[in-house]
Amino acid sequence: MDILRIILAIFLPPVAAFLTVGIGLHFWLNIILTICGILPGMIHALWLVVKKKGP
Q: What are the residue boundaries of the structural domains of the chain, listed by start?
């Protein structure tokens, strides 16, 4: 499942953020970062997916 999230983080960062943390602060922050530029949103989504602990 993490591979799918990483692929989504590259192509659709807000979707990856939503699947990782749900609708919360990090999701909305990722929306804002993606609107500002795809690269900041992508980096944030990848960070969320990689730092996630647990199953």
A: 2-51
